[in-house]
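Readers of this paper often ask what the protein records in our data store actually look like. Such a record has a labelled line for the sequence and another for the backbone structure tokens. Nothing more is needed to write down the fold, since each code stands for a local backbone conformation. The remainder of this section carries one protein's record, kept here as part of the documentation.
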Amino acid sequence: MAQFYKAKPNQGKKLSQKIALKVSRLDHLGAGIAEFDGKVVFVPGALPGETVEVQLTEQKKNFAHARLLKVSEASLHRQAPACPWYGKCGGCDLQHLSLEAQRDYKGAALADILGRGLGEPVSLTAPTLGGDGWHYRHRARLATLLDKDSSRLTLGFREESSKQVVAIEHCAVLAKSLSDLIAPFASVLGRLKGKTRLGHLELLDAANGLFAVLRVTAPLAQSDKKLLAAFADEAGVELLLQGNEGELEFLSQGSALPHYQLGDSLKDDSLKLEFAPGNFIQVNGEVNQAMVTQAIDWLDIQPGDRVLDLFCGVGNFSLPLAKHGAEVIGVEGVPEMVERARSNAAKNGLENVAFYCADLSADLAAEPWLGQIDKLLLDPARAGAYESLQWLKKMKPAKVLYVSCNPSSLGRDAVLLKDAGYRLTRLGLLDMFPQTHHSEGMALFELDN
């Protein structure tokens, strides 16, 4: 039987209508929430209490998405974004909201999500850990995009949910020392003969200087290396090339890896933690220091405590815990980071800490480190620690400190802790990423006797 194409009804008029809405609150991704025609409407860029004019862009049975066209009545908390690329670059999404209001919103969202998971009202019990709202990032990865027709190279950040790169000259949330490097780097990279071989550019402001890691998909010509080395020398940057297999080539005189410090940098006993390009570290050094200090306080670390640190990375929590006298076991799934953690422990003279490599989402029954402990610290990725918490009965910690970069997975995992006899005793917001909706939380669970 023949089938003939039949055009679908034109939904353009319905989707493009302009309507006025009253925004009631923000969702957990920072978008304004309003109601229209019995549906919840999500409006990115709108704030609670505002009357806005929007254009519907997508309609489903129970909800719709809309594009903000005009703010008719503005919130008292609305502010002018500091970045000229705000709304184009996919990095920040809350620059239009005052910093104080951002933290109020994030704290309320954290408590709401965790409360829903536990099935009971939850509130913050500690002051928010948050530093300066601007120039706080000490690490960033910039994308490159080459226009094949014009041979013009763009350096910047990607648009949200897009491969397009927004060319920027500076960044208001990046450390000033790194922000000032963006335009000069864009200029020198655009002069290279091997522009087709360039990948991302990673910028680092470490305790031992400025670093830049340029990803290359194939070796660069010596003339290009010479040009980059001269630029790095003039800019005071340690410049490394990173190949397809992760191999590093120093173009400048130095050969030391970057490191950050924990503790009083003016004292000789502060901890130094080295890391390699690609290793995970916290990009907000000020909040990270406060977070580690609070973790040790909440766990009430005593000499001889047996502490298990899962998802330990390069030792961000493990080493300070060991320095305070605990017997620490750190476990991480990335072999290279485990070796880096071991090296960091040795260089800091800590012998009361051991590191293991394990897939923490797999069966851990045969792992030599799995056994009874006094205290457990978890700092998982966004996916959370659901699989690891299945082994609570074997570990039997009196206290569990959960550091979360995703409140949703924390809310889910908290149910496992509750079912295992733990109750939430402390909760605090970690504002690692001001000017964005991203929030982190620290939750302490204690075993009921």
